[in-house]
Protein 1
Amino acid sequence: MRQGFFVVVEGTEGAGKSTLVKRLAARFGERGEAPVLVREPGGTPVAEKIRQLLLDPAHPIEAVSELYLFLAARADLVATVIRPALEAGRVVIADRFQLSTEAYQCGGRGLDRTLFRTANRAATGGLEPDLTLVLDLPPDMGFGRIRAAGQGLDRIEQAGQAFHQRVAQVFRAATGPGIVHLDAGLPPDQVGQLAWQQVLARLPEAREAQGR
């Protein structure tokens, strides 16, 4: 590819983000490309340490402190992995990015969006995804999937039904350049195909071919 391409997969707990990331990576692989896969929080040694702290149920964390821990992890990931990969012309696929922070810390915790946007811009240097795929799924369905898989709940997953309803509302309402909503209640194969269609429509070479 002649320029980098940044795809983010967002959504509520149990919506199928990790599954979709793997499917998109396989599709890029069929094109002969090896995308860089990252997750948030995480993706670097520093960010993975922060992830352990953030998700450990044994450590209560005050809301503003939680916000800045997420942003510290993001700043390290962007500076050391995402931006260098994009500058090298690579595809980067992220399991969560800034929309998750707005959903969980602003919608869920009730923090001020102006605080979030200012601090997030400092953390990312203004980096924006080329495409954000939002997997829409009611929280009760997502947690049903988690229970069916026999998975334990981390600190944030344990935040309660009302919290996760507020989070889901922010995801459902999200709009803006490059944001596309997908019905995560559909079969995974169908979600994957719909997502890949959106990717193909927005790849840099597709934009150039259309004169955009």
Note: The beta strands are 5-11, 36-39, 91-95, 131-136, 179-183.
Protein 2
Amino acid sequence: MNDSYLFTSESVSMGHPDKVADQISDAILDHCLATHPTSRVACETMVTTDLAIVSGEITTGADLSRATVDKIVRETIRNIGYTDPKIGFAADTCQVMCHIHSQSPDIAVGVDTGGAGDQGMMFGFACNETKSLMPLPIYLSHRLVENHAKLRQSGELPWIRPDAKSQVTLEYNSDGTPRRIHTVVLSTQHDESAMVSHNGKHHFSDQARKVLLEKLILPTLRAERPDLVDGKGDHYLVPVGDNAENSRNKLSFHINPTGIFLEGGPHGDCGLTGRKIIVDTYGGRGRHGGGAFSGKDPTKVDRSAAYMCRYIAKNLVAAGLADQCEVQVSYAIGYPDPLNIWVSTFNTAKGGLTDPQIAELVRGNFNLTPKGIIESLKLRRPIYKETARHGHFGRENPEFLWEATDKVPDLKKAAGI
């Protein structure tokens, strides 16, 4: 009996409209923190055809004049790669509107004394499926869109445009270990040079599909888990409209499966800050507290405590206390200490430890007040724009201190390992 199962995660590129909005909001946050590290920021952005609207509640000593906000927005859009007015959204030609006002003093009453900036629950997760201790489907999905951006920005694939989405389906054994990569979906916006005409209709060319497979998809998969790509059955580049039965037991690739993707980015779909919360975290693996990250300063525990929960979970797995781990904390607005600390290792705890015992190790080795989180992870630095693309977690970036494993010695000592 085959007890394997499939699990899928997706990611979106830096040029996806929701990610454009996230990057603008976090660019505003970085600007505020660079000048005034104790800025209170809750910045929201909407982007659509030839328009970017920045709004929210911000209390800061940084310059937020309309001219400054306009410059930040346009620089962010340009950096992403939207520079051609012909595609409906471009850095130099879009309209920028600014509607920012100061944060409510009612919130500041509790936050100024060290309390949480809001109520809510936050989760963190880690597992030993990858070197980064991230679940493999979301990790591979992120790397696909990250490498998509590199190939576009380097000019190696000049016909791809900034908007793209990836999706990876993994087949797992019944014990939860990866068996094989099952299916990869990649959709990328492109220009006319990647198209061919057939029976009077325009299509994304098969040659362009093969180039994406050979230069982007296969190298990305092989860089992380070649054992799940090579020698695991045939590869099958699925033609548009093909019957799925033809790809049975093969590693299947669906590349631009609609056949064309000319219109995209904010011109093709309105983008909003905070609408990709599962992409930003673990791809559906583990729970999510519901709070978005981008545009929020670290007094907002939606962001800072979620980063801390990832830090805790990653250190617990890196210390060998479990093969996988999920951590939850919750807060009341204006109150500094978490209302609860919960740990689940999904029956993978080592050394005779129980989940409640591991929760006590967390309590004794991590400062979970908002002030403690901010100081531990140095969260008042202007580091956030980079988090808003290609995932907040599992990145090899020395600025992302929540990815460090420096607590491993302390945890091993406390656990008696």
Note: The chain has eleven helices and 14 strands.
Protein 3
Amino acid sequence: MTVINQAPDNDRPPPVRAALSAVTWKEIAYLLSNLPLALVGFVYTVGMVSTAGGLSVTAVGLPLLACGLFLSRQLGRLDRARARALLGVRVDEPTPLPGPKRAGGFFPWLWTSVKDPVAWRTVLYELVRLPWGVLTFTVALTGLFVLWPVLPYVARGLANVDRAMVRGLLSPSDELERRIAELESDRGVVVDTAAADLRRIERDLHDGAQARLVALAMGLGLAKEKLLEDPEGAAAMVDEAHGEVKLALQELRDLARGIHPAVLTDRGLDAALSSVASRCVVPVKVAVDLPSRPAEAIEGIAYFVVSELLQNVSKHAGAGARGASVEVWRAGARVLIRVSDDGRGGARAVDGSGLAGLAERLGAVDGVLVVDSPDGAGTVATAELPWRDRGA
């Protein structure tokens, strides 16, 4: 793991030499430029915060603050570039804020911009840099004429303080940036998964129940026309239509079960998983040991995880599979799910596979999927989900 708050070895300046080297001259240039740039940053920051704060009771206060913080981010970018050029400090650029469209609208974007930690750390940097800039400018300028023999050591000490300030206030937080990237990725997975589910439902309705109902309507229309001329033929057509109605109802039940089964809502995870297990091609033992019912979302995800894993058992367990088992239990703040079979094994969560898609879905809710499937020795799939109490 890269820790950006510490300087890697190749970022550290060479040892101090008595003679003024190129590195020392760069450090002196940085110290002398601190004051004029600090004045600009301080005046802007104080003016921006005071103006936005004074207008906070009006409709333009928060949008003005958001725009001001955005410009503070740009000041931080310039300060990082100056530190990189003159002090050799390589600090990663923070993740850009999403625009109003990506943030979900104007008000979510406004709130995200106003509480932007990167911008507020830059504001703090600009405020504390003014007194420090006065000190470094005075010492560096005086040292050029008075402290010449020890100037390299003095410049190095002051520049190291600047390096620490840049890394501490202008570098992004490792954990925060990692979490932002994960959330952006998870949001994309959730959107893609929802779109795929909608396409599946639309396809199932179009190719299944809808087509059957269209044929049913046409058959009933023909039976109506034959009702007076050929009552027996019309009765046979109505009887056939009755059978089509039953099939259409079954298909709609299956489709509804795929969206959210009624048994899960009414009776909970144990009964719902037992129902799924009864449709598997091999005998399945189900053991659910939960102190209470989790939140509806967690319960639904657990159900579909087991459903998909048991479908994989039916499809890929092979002729050697004699049985499977499903275990669900709570461990602290997590829900653990284990689905195992004694089939041929060899399951892999490669890109494009059902297991890879399942792992992405779990990752979108801070879950984990681990698959142990050696060739010829069965498969054990373990999933973890965060526990949330129902109604919380």
Note: Residues 1-10 have pLDDT under 50 and may be disordered.
Protein 4
Amino acid sequence: MKNTIIFQKYYFIKLICKNAFDAKLLTLLAFVFIACDGFVDVDLPNSQLAASEVFEEKSTANAAMTQVYAKMRDGGLFTGYATGLSNLLGNYTDELAFYGTAQEGTVNFYNNVVLPSNSSVKSIWNSSYNQIYGANAVLEGVTASQKLPDSDRKQLMGEALFTRALIHFYLTGIYGSIPYVSTTEYQTNRSISKESSGRIYLHCIDDLKRARGLLSESYSAPDRTRPNRSAARALLARVYLYTQQWAESSNEASAVLNNTGLYTYENNLSKTFLKGSQATIWQFSANTAIGNTLEAQTFIFSSGPPAITALSPFFLSSFQNGDLRRTLWITSVTNGITSWHYPSKYKNKGTGTSTEFSIILRLSEIYLVRAEARAHAGDLIGSKEDINKIRHSAGLADTPAVSQNEILNALLQERRHELFTEFGHRFFDLKRFGSLDTVLFPVKPQWQTFKSVLPLPESELILNSNLNPQNTGY
């Protein structure tokens, strides 16, 4: 963990200053973190602005938070590059098939032979805790601010808490027991211990409940690129689902779905992933003013065989006849002999005009979250109504499922077809349903039960003995 934490202040300075155009802004941000106790032993020169001043102005405080989002978009768990979960966990399960070379980092995920020395395991860990550090720095900075207007302080605190919960939620989903880092204090973090997934989820719930009370219901940025109260509710609904708090999950989901002043369900699947969709709850902006998504760059190919990956035959054969998601969200490429298919939820690979942003949270998932919570709580009619909402937009008739077990199985299939290649939903769903072994043993020759979690990075275990023991099987 020392390797992760000790340099994070330098890295956070870099990620903020990367897009800082104003000289004063750059000076403020460059010194905000190196001035903290425990990282430097000398005072700043008198000519330098105090570190705390970064969070005394709305522009610089917002710059700190928005650059955390930029870092999340460009690396770690949520990036649309091949190093992110959408590609890696798609290959790890049964969504994607690998076509690249042995040098590609994806191959070990596809073959289910991910080792503690794997570079992606280390990169995801380090990137994520760097981003958590950034969120904590913002949270501490705005909390201590003397001049920041109260409305801005609350918004930024809420965003930082939301971000911290989101990253920890995904980390525990892939690694199991992990540290929950809630401070920038180096001496605390250098020897921090792991906590169980159950404890991590409780921390996430606490953070999200605080965020829900702090965030504005309206969006503080155009294009829904900054989370609002509904984003916190949507994620809270998901965490409650994972902790089997069915009523709480359903209530949070309903609060989002009933917010018709902000959200409109998109029945036209061709418009679902456009950046102006009213079904989007939260999304990343593009990395340039005229750019589009990194997912399109990763998944789209124009000739075969694919350079890295394509949709797997197992996934392609799972669609019901007439499912518009198969028609509109999947594209075929052929060389006249063989055909390959790629996910085309995002269709704009080029630049010039931004038409698509990477969507992190959207209404369809929240309907499916509520459907699952309702099914477990015994509200089978309500659960089917939510499932059918998704099916109808896909051009399908009502689900024939009747019993609770049938409805839950139908729900797992709907999630498979609605959320494919979106941040590893398939992996987390199979894990939550207890179906990883049942589904993957027949199609993944090297699958083993203990691989329901990835190994902890061996370099971090060496630096911080409190992270031991290594996950079973590794």
Note: The longest strand covers residues 280-284.
